[in-house]
Amino acid sequence: MAVYFQKREVVVPGQLLAEGRYRASFGTYDEDGKIFSSLVGLAELRGNTVKVVALEGAYIPKEGDLVIGTITIVAGNNWKVDIGGPYGASLHANNALRRPYSDDISEYMNIGDVIAAEVIAFDRSSGPFLGMKGRGLRVLQGGMILDVSPAKIPRIIGRRGSMINVIQDHLNIDTMVGQNGRIWLQAPSTEVLRLAIKAFKTIEAQAHTSKLTDRISEMLAEEMAIIKGSSASEKEVNPEEVSVQDDSSDIKSESELEPEPEVVTEAEEEKPVVVEAEAEVEEEEEDEKKTEEVSE
Amino acid sequence: MSPETKPDFLISPEGLRVDGRRPDEMRPIELKVGVLKQADGSASIRQGKTYIIAGVYGPRELHPRHLTLNDRAYLRVEYRMATFSVPDRKRPAPSRREKEISMVIANALKPVLFLEDFPKAVVDIFIQVIQADGGTRCAAINAASLALADAGIPMRSLIPAVAVGKADGKLLVDLGDEEDKYGEGDVPMAIIPQTEEITLLQQDGSFTREELMEAMQMGINSCKYLHELQKEALRREYVKKTPDNGDDDDEDDGFEDDMETDLGEAELMEDE
Question: What ipTM was predicted for this assembly?
Fold first, then answer.
């Protein structure tokens, strides 16, 4: 019975973590009662379970995950959806539409549409299969998609959503965080959108540091004050003031960001609205679009 | 043709090698992790004049589809030498030698990877030899192993590899180009350090049974040294990524609860 690592220590594959009556879980393996790390990551002990929090890695689907994907193929009664990672997902019309629905399901969702869906089944031999029957699962209209490393998503959400709530409260924006490392954002103005992106990128870069929620909250409060101040009275926007802010530690740390390719795609607008759409906030917007379609 | 000539001796009267090393001394080694931004994982190695870059992509969707394995991921290794990596321009077409070394490297790495975690997918390893000065297949294994860890591919252990050889009747660790060319034999090997299991063992030239056993023991010792370098290179990269905010260090007590709960209770990896 012994543990060979410090709390939240960076461990490497093959490193002996614990011996004795401990249980191996994510990122570890058990060999003759000894537990070794199988990843580079941060070792953690919870009860008698040893796990390694990964710092890198592709997205591997899990049942119940909320994912954000792009439709790549419409095939009969199925949509094929790109959700990132090694496995392409499929979404059956029965799991997305209320019956009866038209034979041509591309009327509802077509190639290029960005959707929020749930992984309803995935195992080693088949899947993943998606569903869109849950609350809030819909075609995402407007806004943008931000790509982050899937390994950092737990941190972006935070404990019971603590982190994401901080961001939403401060910025008053619509977001949807997919477990597959895609974040959908819709903000009232470009400044706020930029700030949101900066917040997410900061979290991604500093995912394994402590007190992150507090720091993000502080940063957002400061920057929001500036944005509000500048929009209230245009004259007071002093370029110097802004640049002083830019020298703050938050920005420095952002420059240390791993420059992972950040694909920032604008979700196309004016796509047919899906029947199941349950958006509360955007109802007016959607109505507008519906009328647009009719007129077309 | 390059005017290379055989040196007068591979072992000097003082018992030193052409580049002044002792028989059991390795060349200076520099390992770097995360050298390619585009790749999911990457690493480079300088071992003497040998310089190699390895990039890992995946696990990702496998094309062409017919290669798919239903119970595990396919490991695809591409070892390639740059045309300028050797004195006489290497023709760019993939050679028999490159294909063989690719296969040998894949076989050396496969035993430690948990490929069964990603059925039907592929893990691609691209290895580019920028400058070749002997021992490229072993250096390539060292770099590829680090790149795999950097990509977050689960594995039992890192894999160190080294070549042991014989010149002027003496056993030498980590052969340079001349010792490889004009020496009497070459035994490249790779091991799993914890268990000393051998994942790669090749030989050319002739060794007596005793010589081979001794060569392997020398190789194992050198591999263990290399393994330490690998672990250090990997840790260095990831510890560096942790921004050193002064305010964090002061609050050691705060660190404990905040961190654990925050990362631990996010539901993603919770039920494992």
Answer: 0.83
Greatest Cα pair distance in chain A: 72
pTM score, whole prediction: 0.80
Q: Which of residues 46-75 of B touch A (CB under 8 A)?
A: 58-62, 70-71, 73
Chain A's closest residue to B194, CA to CA, is A14
Q: Measured between beta carbons, which residues in chain B are less than 8 angstroms from residue A210?
A: 248, 251, 254-255, 258-259
Strands A66-75 and A78-82: antiparallel
Residue B267 reports pLDDT greater than 70:
no
CATH superfamily of A144-264: K Homology domain, type 1 (3.30.1370.10)
- How far, in Å, CA of B266 to CA of B259, rounded? 11
Looking at the complex, does the CB of residue A151 fall below 8 Å from at least one CB of chain B? Answer: yes
Write out pLDDT tens, residues A78-87: 999 999 889 9
Beta-carbon-side half-sphere exposure of residue A169 (alpha carbons within 13 Å) = 11
A162-190 tens-digit pLDDT = 899 989 888 888 899 999 999 999 988 88
User: Does the distance separating the beta carbons of B121 and A153 come in below 8 Å?
Assistant: no
Task: Name the CATH code of domain A2-54 (choices 3.40.50.1000, 3.40.50.970, 3.40.50.300, 2.40.50.100).
Answer: 2.40.50.100
pLDDT digits (tens, 9 = 90+) for B71-103: 999 999 999 999 999 999 999 999 999 999 999
DSSP β-bridge partners for residue A184: A145, A176
Of B214, B51, B233, B221, the residue nearest B158 (C-alpha): B233
Cβ of A85 within 8 Å of Cβ of B156? The answer is no
Q: Select the CATH number that applies to the domain covering B29-240 from these four: 3.40.5.10, 3.10.450.50, 3.30.465.10, 3.30.230.70.
A: 3.30.230.70
Contact B272 A25 (CB under 8 A): yes
